[in-house]
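Loading example: each entry is read as four labelled lines plus one structure line.
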Amino acid sequence: MSDEQVTAPTNRRRISQRGIATRERILEAANRLMLVRGVNATTLDDIREASQTSKSQLYHHFADKQELVRALVNYRGALVLQRERAGLERLRSFSGLVRWRNALVQANSLNNGKYGCGLGSMALELSDQDEQARSSLSETFAAWERLISDGLHRMRDSGLLRQDADPEKLATGLMAALQGGYLLANAAHDVAPMEVALDMALEHIKSFLVQPAAEPAR
Amino acid sequence: MSDEQVTAPTNRRRISQRGIATRERILEAANRLMLVRGVNATTLDDIREASQTSKSQLYHHFADKQELVRALVNYRGALVLQRERAGLERLRSFSGLVRWRNALVQANSLNNGKYGCGLGSMALELSDQDEQARSSLSETFAAWERLISDGLHRMRDSGLLRQDADPEKLATGLMAALQGGYLLANAAHDVAPMEVALDMALEHIKSFLVQPAAEPAR
DNA sequence: AATAAATGGGACCAAATAGTCCAGGAAATC
DNA sequence: GATTTCCTGGACTATTTGGTCCCATTTATT
């Protein structure tokens, strides 16, 4: 769904290790620059310079800026999903969720809430500008939520969560709290709102635990 | 804190009704265009055309694009706060919160989740690009949260909310859910995630009610 | 080794876009 | 009503930026 390449003879085309590396270097630079400056505020010359490549290479690997952005959407999505899969695929307990929360908070606190979520910022900037990018981002968010809801399903199946808990809705709520937390933290240049938001969502999930603990979440 | 005008002789400068109207027309057009296309993707020519003005007028009323954007940040902030003040300053009950939620959801559903929150989208786009804009936006968010927390304080003072409820944190959580909901709804082009997120936050607030009702929030 | 195809460097072009300028018209003050 | 100051229209300029092109170099296939 994301790999259309140069449209035509993908098979007839030779490809070298060096070419792959260059393409990767471009995406890596675009990822880095566009995270801090935003997509529209980053120029191709910025990327060319940061990736130590040239114009012809940019246009050799990507038809135009839009296609580069779309590739970045997939690139960044894959990175996030990979990271999140590592942290969520074995989720089976509430304390696992707390650890997951702590990891996100700590990562974000390293830069005082700046930059926010790479996916969320692209979503707001591109959704009303590039339908294909929006669609990809939406799917990535869905996959991310599924990682969470799968964990919640496991917790429900094992009897930790009540039967009337709705893993999908809980996951959506948690994701919204996370994204909203990123946004407020970014605006405030302070992780605090992100912590409060995540704690709210965790508290909400906690209220569906079969044996609610006495102490509040943390 | 937001009105610096042309820096120098604000008093010595005559100003006509027509001038004010033109400035307003420019801001109104910028507000409209930048909401759907984003700040960086909107050109001054777009604004000039949409506002039925000319280049000289843009630069007569604003030093450059950055200052126009900063003025827009304040303009939009004032609009949102005005709207929210109307809906929140008499907040005294949980059902009042539900009505507030419903109004936001309905407004957003009119365009299938598109465009998101005018403040939130600017926040993500400008926070890492214009420190002054970020600061203003952060203050506006704080004022908005205060409208909510003031209402929650009233509910706590009147005995509706438990004493251990923290209005500030509850307001931050609700705001994060709202902003995250806007973001996910925008990415999905569907209000549903925004509803789920807001309901989660309301449910969380509900858990601090002195006499929890039997039925779930709605 | 010869050949063909992929990769690379960077000058160059065209369009978009921010920003300038000035002359004429409108409004306020005397 | 005259004069001064503000406001407006729109042509014009400079810069940025996406995109093209050509030729050299490297890599793979024979």
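Chain B touches chain A through 47 residues (CB under 8 Å).
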